[in-house]
């Protein structure tokens, strides 16, 4: 004889509160509250929904909103008189046909922010090179931001362009200085700075102007020669002369690369040679030689040197194209062979 027991659970009011209570953001005059949708096993019956209670911080009375949707996880409260970025206290509970569950713990939520009402002041823009400027400003005070100040937006446009067509770049934090790159050489730019938060940007600062520098010479150092002498190599090159529409050469940069390691040597314009160490093994080094000046760095001339490289030279013509790239001892041997052949004739 078998006895079968059937267990039936009567519906009851929810016994747990929703979790994940939070919110914030939104448009003007909005308070947005969010929470995690409750799983079915915690709903305890049909007719399920949520009761959301909220009040301004330090207020005594609560407002309650009944939200009769199982899948709801967000509520937007709108009020024309809602001040920007006001702190609220919120709590939530679940209900079904059998009754209401317990309230959750209170959470703090802010109403939507408003764009900053003031702009940065004392804007200064300085040309660093032909392609880059540095912009600095007096920062906006947090109390003027009607919310959390996220950073600054720099707008820049060429002299004969409209401000509406300005390019824009945003800082990632509250630093009061930033660099803007990718500009055109010898070009006059207007620059303005705006503060921004999650609601948008505030009014622009007074604009300033800056002119980028002349471009660097577009020629590589010519007639690069080198002489490897066991543990070191001596490299020489011709001076790069700037044209009238190019920035003056202030010196040279030699980048030394070996097995993933790099080191940079910066020389003044009076020096067109230098000695560098060679690796003790049979490895090689890569050298990049370029001019530098107010307009930035010029194109590089690259050579590869090892202990057994001997003497070599890279000859350049006026158009900066390589005419030869042979070690000098090979070139000398080839010349002797040609002379012997001519004598034989």
CATH architecture of the largest domain: Sandwich
Query: Do you know the CATH topology of the largest domain?
Result: Immunoglobulin-like
Shape: elongated
C-alpha-based Rg, rounded: 36 Å
Terminal Cα span: 126 Å
Q: Count of DSSP helices?
A: 1
* Largest sheet entry: 5 strands, antiparallel
Protein name: Contactin-2
GO molecular function: cell-cell adhesion mediator activity
Pfam families: fn3
Keywords: Disulfide bond, Repeat, Signal
Keywords:
345 residues; mainly beta; Immunoglobulin-like; 3 domains; five-stranded antiparallel sheet; 1 helix; 5% helix; elongated
Give a description of the structure.
One of its GO terms (cellular component) is plasma membrane. The protein is mainly beta and 345 residues long. The protein folds into three domains: 22-110, Immunoglobulin-like, CATH 2.60.40.10; 121-211, Immunoglobulins (Immunoglobulin-like), CATH 2.60.40; 224-343, Sandwich (Immunoglobulin-like). It is built from one helix and 26 strands. The strands form six sheets. Strands 3, 4, 6, 7 and 8 form a five-stranded antiparallel β-sheet that branches. Strands 11, 12, 14, 15 and 16 form a five-stranded antiparallel β-sheet that branches. A hairpin with a 2-residue loop joins β6 and β7. The termini are far apart. Mean pLDDT is 87; it is low at 317-345.
């Amino acid at each position: 004889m078998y006895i079968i027991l059937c267990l039936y659970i009567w519906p009851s009011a929810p016994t747990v509160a929703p979790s994940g209570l939070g919110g914030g953001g939104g448009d003007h005059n909005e308070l947005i509250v969010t929470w995690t949708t409750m799983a079915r096993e915690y709903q305890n019956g049909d007719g399920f929904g949520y009761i959301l209670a909220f009040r301004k911080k330090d207020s005594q009375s609560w407002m309650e909103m009944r939200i009769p949707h199982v899948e709801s996880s967000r509520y937007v409260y709108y009020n024309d008189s809602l001040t920007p970025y006001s702190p609220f206290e919120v709590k939530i509970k679940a209900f079904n046909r059998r009754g209401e569950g317990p309230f959750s713990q209170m959470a703090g939520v802010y109403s939507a922010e408003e764009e900053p009402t003031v702009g940065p002041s004392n804007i200064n823009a300085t040309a660093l090179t032909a392609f880059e400027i540095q912009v600095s400003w007096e920062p906006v005070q947090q109390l003027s931001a009607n919310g959390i100040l996220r950073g600054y937006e720099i707008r820049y446009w060429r002299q004969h362009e409209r401000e509406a067509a300005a390019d824009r770049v945003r800082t990632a934090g509250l630093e009061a200085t930033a660099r803007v790159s990718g500009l055109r050489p010898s070009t006059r730019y207007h620059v303005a700075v705006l503060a921004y938060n999650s609601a948008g940007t505030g009014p622009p600062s007074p604009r300033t102007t800056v002119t980028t520098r002349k471009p660097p010479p577009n020629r590589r150092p010519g007639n690069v020669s080198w002489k490897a002498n066991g543990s070191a190599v001596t490299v020489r090159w011709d001076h790069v002369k700037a044209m009238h529409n190019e920035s003056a050469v202030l010196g040279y940069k030699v980048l030394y690369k070996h097995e993933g390691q790099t080191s940079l040597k910066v020389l003044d314009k009076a020096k067109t040679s230098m000695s560098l160490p060679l690796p003790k093994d049979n490895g090689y080094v890569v050298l990049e030689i370029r001019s530098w000046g107010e307009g930035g760095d010029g194109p590089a001339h690259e050579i590869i040197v090892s202990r057994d490289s001997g003497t070599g030279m890279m000859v350049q013509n006026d158009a900066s194209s390589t005419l030869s790239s042979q070690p000098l001892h090979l070139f000398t041997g080839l010349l002797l062979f040609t002379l012997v052949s001519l004598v034989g004739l």
